[in-house]
Amino acid sequence: MIILDTMLIAIRALGTNKLRTGLTMLGIVIGVGAVIALIAAGQGAQKGVTERVNGLGSNLIFVRPAQTQQGGVRGQIATSLTTQDAAALNDPKLLPQVVGVTAQSNATTQAIANGVNVSTTLTAADPNYPAVRNFYPAIGRFITDQDVSSDALVTVLGSTVATELFGSPQSAMNQTVRLAFGPGGRFGFNFQVVGVMQTLGSSSSTNQDDQVFVPISTLQSRIRFLRNPLGQTNVQQITVKVAKSSQIGVTKNEITNLLLQRHGGTQDFTVLSQSDLLATANQVSRTLTILLGAIAGISLVVGGIGIMNIMLVSVTERTREIGIRKAVGARRGDILLQFVVEALIVTIAGGIIGIVIGVVAARLANGHNFGGSSAVQTVVSPLSIVAAFGVSAAIGLFFGIYPAFRASRLDPIEALRTE
Amino acid sequence: MIRLRGITKIYRTGDVEVPALVDARLDIADGEFLAIMGPSGSGKSTLMNILGCLDRPTRGTYELDGQFVHKMSDDQLAMIRNRRIGFVFQSFNLLARLPAVEQVELPLIYRGVHNRRKLAMQALADVGLADRTHHKPTQLSGGQQQRVAIARALVTRPSIIMADEPTGMLDTKTSRDVMETFARLNAERNLTVVFVTHEPEVAAYTRRVVHIRDGRIVDDDAARAEAAGASGPASAAAPAPAQATA
Ligand SMILES: Nc1ncnc2c1ncn2[C@@H]1O[C@H](COP(=O)(O)OP(=O)(O)O)[C@@H](O)[C@H]1O
Ligand SMILES: [Mg+2]
Fold this sequence. Notes:
Number of strands of chain B: 10
Structural class of chain A: alpha+beta
Distance between the termini of chain B: 17 Å
Distance between the termini of chain A: 27 Å
Number of strands of chain A: 10
Largest interface: A-B, 24 and 25 residues
Strand content of chain A: 15-25%
Strand order of the largest sheet of chain A: 2-3-8-5-7-6
Bound molecules: adenosine-5'-diphosphate, magnesium ion
Structural class of chain B: alpha/beta
Number of helices of chain A: 14
Largest sheet of chain A: 6 strands, mixed, barrel
Shape of chain B: globular
Order of helices and strands of chain B: EEEHEEHEHHHEHEHEEH
Strand content of chain B: 25-35%
Number of helices of chain B: 8
Oligomer: heterodimer
Radius of gyration of chain B: 18 Å
């Protein structure tokens, strides 16, 4: 039997029970749509992380405190790195290839001015920060050595924060901003705005423009509850810039050796390059993508079981029709093909609709933050479309073949006897 | 040409065996017009289904134009039903939603024929339904539905028509129309027509009547004629002679 005839017969059969066909198809539509949209979200997250890490620059090395088990309670953030460590790494006699070192700590804070209150990230930095991170003030100045030595209450605003608080970066200059910390913002100081950073744009999911800078010494000495009981010079991250990215590997080893020496042989820190961060981040987001895809895949399988269920009902209901077709000369293969094609039409049509819905949903979600702090990014890959299409066709085949096989095996006389 | 030897059909329901047809011997020559008669439950439908290649005998041999049908696979039987035999049922067995012309096209689809519409229209015209080609079964009378079914049986130009009580659900006048259609096809095209009926007036259209009772062929005009013509009873091993259509 010609395939075109089979398709016409199948379409007509599906058309006689439109509601049932529609509901069966809906299972596949939802499954495929969910696969497309959730994988797009997972891959978007992956892309965001990659962009963010790449944005750090390829010739940077990040040194962070490690969690140690000896001394100190396990689970607490270790406080092993100090501003003195940063200074040692910046010594040209020890590490000549290093062109810049900056130390920083971070906290979340409420920035309040003009009756406006925004939640943002506080970066306590030293004057080397702009050169190492290649991120400079657009107006005014950054934190100076003078600010650091005097624990000055000065701040440099990210452009987003400046605009949110004062309407524009220009009008933020020399204004006073209250930075409050802790539950309900109970601890706070008034800072004078001495500069506003350049705008980097929010292409990635963390917005570098949404932060405020204060001298690292100010955080260490004045904001007591953030201070570590063991000392006042702890830092959360030391960023080391080398001249060429080819020096990363060697420098990592030298930094490790130098710090081991300084810390009495205890490896209470980690030394990571951009590619190390990327590998870790990618692993996390890949796991996320797989997880999201698997959840969506389950709904696709449920949709497939719905197809099988309906096809079995349909074969039972149409036993007499099958008997008539066999009586006039339909072979087993003709009947098998007819029911498989019916299942395939449902799943392929459902798959196409699901792909359209999934892509549209992913596009609509892209750039929205849904009440979170950073925008959701979605990436619809052509591969996921091809895969979703293939999988829906495979589901039609897999779940359609058993009912079709049952139909094809019916005995013509038995089938004609049923009412 | 049809030759049945020792055809037996036993239905098994649980532990009970019902011998619906026992040791049937029957020869049908090309171009014969033959009625099968017998009381209800005597095995007429069982015989027709086997003759029509819709069912297989439990044992016995069935030779159709030199081919041994009882040895064939399901798909080979489907092919025989599609090309060589047209089957007409008591209850018409039309598909519920299709217009007449598409009912008639059905066997041609499975045959992969291309000018189906034209052939189907011709077959409907042959049974006098040229003006009902796009009516669905619910829009047709019983007699018209049966004629659609006959057109469907004829459209593949088979050499044999099998009809199991084709007039069983029709009134006297419509029955006459249907039987006249069969008689005409038999005369004009030399079609072999085998049908089952209860009614002697319907059987009167034919030249040969086979009687069946309790699954056994008890009286066959041709066998009797042969026995009368020959020097003794027909031997089971002897090949059937070409039927004299008396
Ligand atoms: N599928 C079946 N299972 C069991 N018994 C059957 C089946 N079909 C027919 N029979 C029995 O076989 C006998 C012959 O049936 P059938 O050929 O339909 O008779 P007729 O057509 O002459 O009325 C009957 O006794 C009937 O009950
Ligand atoms: Mg019967």
